[in-house]
Amino acid sequence: MDNQSKKSNGRGGKRPGAGRPKGSLDKGNALIRELIVSALDELGGTAYLVDKAQSHPAAFLALIGRTMPLQVTGDGGGAVQHAIRVTFG
């Protein structure tokens, strides 16, 4: 089947600049995050989280796992620099 005989559904393919920028939140997720932050502020912020970390450590660690970045970068966004120094005597 050649390309001329295919019918377009009017939705174009991949176009430069189309859609949301990578990593940005849609309006629904942004609104939910704002509501969660507002509720956390009303409950005491950091003190509330400390209390929950002590009373429910598994749930708190799950929260940390979901909110921490998946990749760690070094200075200027580059790779993390490692230095190992071994001395004897």
Features of the shown structure:
89 residues, mainly alpha, flat
Which regions are unreliable across 5 or more consecutive residues at pLDDT < 50? none
Q: Using the CA coordinates, give the radius of gyration.
A: 24 Å
- Total strands: the figure is 0
| Sheet with most strands | none
Assembly context of the chains: single chain
Q: Could you tell me how far the N terminus lies from the C terminus, measured between alpha carbons in angstroms? A: 76 Å
Structural category: mainly alpha
Mean pLDDT: 81
Helix content class: 40-55%
Strand content: under 5%
Counted by DSSP, the helix tally is 3
- Shape designation: flat
Order of helices and strands, N to C?
HHH
Overview of the molecule:
There is one protein chain. This protein is mainly alpha-helical and 89 residues long. The protein has a domain at 25-67. The chain has helices spanning 27-43, 46-55, 57-67. The longest helix has 17 residues, at 27-43. The protein starts with 26 loop residues before the first helix and ends in a 22-residue tail after the last helix. The relative contact order is 0.05.
